[in-house]
Write a structure and sequence with these properties.
7% strand, 11 helices, single chain, 298 residues
Length: 298
């Protein structure tokens, strides 16, 4: 039952988430005259250049300036320890998860008693917060839920919480801590404690196994994002798998345009891939010197 609550909350959260100056120097230039360096002392005089800070202070900056593409953790090399947190997005994800949790509890309270594992007749005899305190004192206990609930759906819920933070730029440990806090304090000792005693399996399996599964989801999503949201060449499969790996961020990102921004960035980055080169000629100690250079962008 708890697993159904977790998954339903994620689905409810997903539904709620829907609501420089160019100079021309080719004219008026006298022909270059090369003189032997050992006979000529070349002295160049130029006016003092202003400090960089003075130049920067004179450049007007718009307060409404926004970059065309905002880089995120998927644009950086893979790392388990690098953390570039986007707290604004994380708080948004947390608010969506909380709204989904509240919506789920309201729906479950309206369902018939046989649809849940809650003893409503017994619960109705005890005030709400006294019931919560009693359940917290009695727990945690080893529950008798089915295998698919404790070891499949609960880890998936933990992975979804983990990815909610991982895709916001947090590293493995920060994402694990977020998954632990959501599953423990928001669920087991939060909403669910009003109707059930906290479960040992849910306290351990959800954040621990869920985080391991979540890092696997993160690697899969990195591969999909790196290929322009395509998997095996299919954008439909790419978007579907990315959503399964990271339902909260992908749903919110759809309405905020994160996927489109990522595709534009990958397209522009790939446009710069390949070979480029140029030749050069300049005076040297032995006369005119020439050469060429080759650059490969990847």
């Amino acid at each position: 039952m708890k697993a159904i609550t977790h998954i339903t909350a994620i689905l409810a959260a997903i539904i709620l988430a829907g609501n420089l100056t160019r100079i021309n120097a080719t004219e008026g230039v006298e022909p270059l005259t090369l003189l032997p360096l050992e006979k000529t002392e070349l002295k160049l005089k130029s006016p003092a250049l202003p400090a960089v800070r003075e130049i920067a202070e004179e450049i007007p900056m718009s307060k409404n300036f926004k970059p065309a593409v905002t880089l995120n953790i998927y644009d950086l090399p893979y790392s388990r320890t690098l953390s570039v947190p986007n707290w604004g997005r994380l708080w948004g994800n947390t608010a969506v998860l909380m709204a989904g949790g509240i919506t789920t509890m309201v729906i479950l309270e309206a369902l018939p008693e046989e649809s849940t594992a809650w003893n409503r007749a017994e619960n109705s005899k005890t005030p709400l917060f006294k019931r919560w305190l009693r359940h917290v004192k009695e727990g945690p206990v080893w529950d008798g839920d089915k295998f698919i609930f404790n070891y499949v759906l609960h880890p998936y819920a933990g992975a979804a919480y983990y990815m909610s933070a991982r895709s916001c730029g947090f590293n493995c440990w920060g994402s694990f801590l977020y998954s632990f806090c959501i599953s423990t304090f928001f669920w087991e000792y939060g909403f669910e404690a009003f109707n059930e005693i906290p479960s040992v399996q849910d306290l351990v399996i959800t954040p621990v196994v869920g985080s391991l599964m979540g890092e696997g989801f993160y690697l899969i999503k990195r591969h999909i994002v790196d290929n322009g949201y395509r998997l095996f060449g299919s954008p439909v499969l790419g978007y579907a798998v990315a959503w399964l790996c990271d339902p909260v961020n992908e749903t919110i990102g759809y309405f905020r345009g994160y996927q489109r921004s990522a595709k534009r960035y990958m397209k522009s980055r790939r446009a710069g891939e390949g070979f480029s080169g140029h030749t050069w000629m300049m005076p040297g100690k032995r006369g005119m010197e020439a050469g060429f250079s080759i650059c490969y962008n990847f």
